[in-house]
Amino acid sequence: MKAIVVNQPGGADQLQVCEREKPEPKPGELLIKVKAAAINRTDIINREAKSGYLDLPILGIEVAGIVEVANTDTKIPAGTRVMGLVNGGGYAEYAVMPADRAMVIPDSLSYKQAAAIPEVFLTAYQTLFWLGELKENETALIHAGGSGVGTAAIQLAKQLAGARVITTAGSQEKLDFCRSLGADVEINYKEQDFDEKVLEATNGQGAAVILDFIGASYYRKNLASLQVDGRWVLIGLLGGAQLENINLMDLMMKRVQLKATLLTPRTDQYKAALTADFAGRALPLFEQNKLKPVIDTVFAMGDIQQAHQRMESNQNIGKIILNMDE
């Protein structure tokens, strides 16, 4: 089968298409004929060998395709259209997926649309509801609103909690798109102090939940933007990981709940439970057109280097998709 591998740790130029053996599903797994996969920042981290998430030389953590082989102990028959998270190996013509992570693709969605759902919507769902405990009509501050997770989080916060959504992005194009998804307040972080705008929009109270992709460089403004007893969930470090001269009393005075998470290194059991909860609560909304996958660009397998470069340059609004069905 054709697969995309990393020659050696480094830049996007280390990615190449080559021939690899088709994987064999173990008990409880499905063999998927991959129709589309998606690019994630986890893939870039693994390409650079900055983490030990994956043992496979083939990148990719989410796919959409057709079940080709289903073991007898699974409930999903061969021929079913499915999408979901895989433990690496997604940038290939075939991949194996734990059956309890497979979500049946709604009839209204294409494979490319389906590939844009699993990682970002599951991450956003986990962050908002499992960790952020977002409640009905609360205010959520969602950074990086034009990113894959950001576009998913805006929709989930509005559709599942009726939340008031404040979002940040670095261009008017991205802010306009965030509004089209349901954002109530949009802030250009390059031109405005977002903490001041958040307090202005909340009558000085601050947001109940913050989805923080940025980390160190946003620490003080996030603290100022959070209400008393607010939940602050760290899911990225685009603005750095090191903090200096931090007074922990500031967190205590606001009774801040600061949580941090990564989805990819979670256990198979955790991912299965998260998938089941999300599928039961949110998946029907795609059929009703209340939730929609957001696709930025579709690349062919041979253009994988350009696909990674597009994500690294932060040009995308929504997901970058690989068309594996060429």
Automatic annotation (TrEMBL):
Lineage of producing organism: Bacteria, Bacillati, Bacillota, Bacilli, Bacillales
Keywords: NADP, Oxidoreductase
GO molecular function, one term: oxidoreductase activity, acting on NAD(P)H
Gene3D superfamilies: Medium-chain alcohol dehydrogenases, catalytic domain, NAD(P)-binding Rossmann-like Domain
Domain of life from the UniProt record: Bacteria
Source organism of this protein record: Sediminibacillus albus
Keyword NADP assigned: yes
Ranges where the Enoyl reductase (ER) domain occurs: 10-322
SMART domains associated with the record: PKS_ER
The name this protein goes by in its record: Putative NAD(P)H quinone oxidoreductase, PIG3 family
